[in-house]
Amino acid sequence: MTQDAADGAPPRPIGPNEGFALEIGSDPKLLPLVRRTTEVASKLAGLDDTAMRQMTLAVDEAMSNVIRHACSAKPGHRIRLAFRFDERWLVIQIDHDGAPAPEGGPKGRDLDDVKPGGLGTHFINTAMDAVHYEQADDGCPRILMARDLHRSREESPSEDRDG
Amino acid sequence: MKIETASPAAGITVVRPEGEVDMNTSPEFRAAVEQAVKDSDKGVIIDLAALEYMDSSGVAVLIEGVRWSKTANVKIILAQPSEAVREVIELARLQKFFAIEASIDSAVGSLQ
């Protein structure tokens, strides 16, 4: 077992020769490609269909946030989405050249306060067991997320966690 | 994504999105729901049977739809959500916020 995300620690970044990656421009038309890739990664990691859909939603929301907020919904930015998994963890890493996330990551809204918007962070935190917003060695923003593959499929969705 | 609209009874509009609602396609979905609320004096049914995927921007459209319908004094009902869409609504803990019917017929009946 690796030390990825153990005790809430940040997952170990995905090295250039590990796992597999998809690099796209900051174009929301490419989000279906992100979803199909996440579905394949989740299946290869051994997740069931419900967990696969949660992961697909979470990665789609994270990538949408990067395009909408970090890249101001403008083309011309590059976003790299990488996956690595072992017997315990599925790790997802998003590197991009847009603006960094707010300190501590985006905040979700109170679910009891029903209004449009603010659900993406909740979906991400529900699917993932660790979410960290940091700076890569090259200074660019990075989002590291990890799913514990041993998490019970019957487990109820977690409460919101701060990024 | 493809969106069809129909009127199964006077004053009732059915909006049927097909495919995937995400950041790219939700503006089209939003426009269709908004127009349906304007065009209907009894109610709007959003048929979710053929919707294979919906992200938070799609949920936001549904929440906006409820708000628009209250302002217009019409009802809005979600009908026969696919498993994937039902999971998203439950993840958002909105299953009690929306009126959800198992079929178009039952949705139409509840609006009559």
Helix content of chain B: 40-55%
N-to-C SSE series of chain A? EHHEEHEE
Question: Any idea how many domains of chain A?
Answer: 1
Mean pLDDT of chain A: 89
Look at the structure and name the CATH superfamily of chain B.
STAS domain
Q: In CATH terms, what is the fold-level topology of chain B?
A: Transcription Regulator spoIIAA
Cα Rg of chain A = 15 Å
- In terms of structural class, how would the helical and strand content of chain A be classed? alpha+beta
Identify the CATH class of chain B.
Answer: Alpha Beta
How many structurally independent domains of chain B?
1
Question: What features would you describe in this structure?
Answer:
The complex is a heterodimer of chains A (163) and B (112). Chain A is of the alpha+beta class and 163 residues long. Chain A has a single domain, classed as Heat Shock Protein 90. Chain A is built from three helices and five strands. Chain A has helices at residues 31-44, 49-70, 120-127, and strands at residues 20-25, 78-85, 89-96, 130-135, 141-148. The longest helix of chain A has 22 residues, at 49-70. Residues 156-163 of chain A have low confidence and may be disordered. Chain B is of the alpha/beta class and 112 residues long. Chain B has a single domain (2-111), classed as STAS domain (Transcription Regulator spoIIAA, 2-Layer Sandwich), CATH 3.30.750.24. In chain B, strand 5 (75-79), helix 3 (83-91) and strand 6 (100-101) form a beta-alpha-beta unit. Chains A and B meet through helix 1, helix 2 and helix 3 of A and helix 2 and helix 3 of B.
